[in-house]
Amino acid sequence: MKWNAAYWIEHLQLQTHIEGGAYTRTYCSDLSIPREQLPPAFHGPRPVSTAIYFLLQQHEFSALHRIASDELWHFYYGDALVIYEIGSDGQLHEHLLGSNPANKESFQCVVRAGSWFGSRVKDGGDYALVGCTVSPGFDFADFTLANRTHLLERYPRHGSVIRMLTR
User: Fold this and answer.
1) Per-residue confidence at 2, pLDDT binned at 50, 70, 90?
2) CA 131, CA 72: separation in Å to the nearest integer?
3) Of 93, 96, 39, 99, which is closest to residue 69 (Cα–Cα)?
4) 99 half-sphere exposure, CB direction, 13 A CA radius
5) What is the pLDDT of residues 119-154, one digit of tens each?
6) Which residues, in sequence order, are CB contacts of 163 under 8 Å at separation 6+?
7) Virtual CA dihedral for 110, 112, 115, 118, nearest 10 degrees?
8) Under CATH, which architecture does the 5-164 domain have?
9) 2 by DSSP, 3-state: which?
10) What is the pLDDT of residues 75-109, one digit of tens each?
11) What is the largest CA-CA distance in the chain?
């Protein structure tokens, strides 16, 4: 049996995410890192690690954003997900998260701290159910949603991706 997106949204009690898609936090470490021991990009103490389920449907996209931590993505179910990452060096990387290595899909990928990134379901797909683990743990205080005009000025050669993944 192949479950649909609505099944997972209900079963996992996913809520709408500000960047697009749906999510729920599944883990937050009881251990905490004090602000003084973190790099300047962090705006307060952080749990050592956090994790979420994230579901994106083919008619949606995860808007370009950045966070202060590395983010490890995990593929769980559905169709492949394309994660676009504009690194601190300005290079565009496309990660293909999925379950078919013959199609160059991987079960995991890492998006580096400070990179701009967003995602969409691979063409022809219906939805992707994935997970994200963040360390130091995620907090919306360290989250920045991209401004289309600003990114187009800074990275004009990635204009098609920026226009596709910004509102």
Assistant:
1) confident
2) 8
3) 39
4) 9
5) 999 999 999 999 999 999 999 999 999 999 999 999
6) 148, 152
7) 20
8) Sandwich (2.60)
9) coil
10) 999 999 999 999 999 999 999 999 999 999 999 99
11) 50
Residue identified by tokens 């021991």 is 37
Question: Residue type at 137?
Answer: G
Domain definitions of the chain by residue range = 5-164
DSSP 3-state percent helix, strand, coil across the chain (nearest 5): 20, 40, 40
C-beta separation of 135 from 70 below 8 A: yes
Which secondary structure element, helix H or strand E, spans residue 122, and what is its range?
A: none
The structure's pTM equals 0.95
Question: Average pLDDT, whole number, for the chain?
Answer: 97
Give the torsion sign (CA, 94, 109, 70, 6): positive
- Please calculate the CA angle 109-145-69 and round it to the nearest 5 degrees: 40
DSSP string for residues in 20-74:
SSEEEEEEE-S-EE-GGGS-TT--S-EES-EEEEEEEETT--EEEEE-SSEEEEE
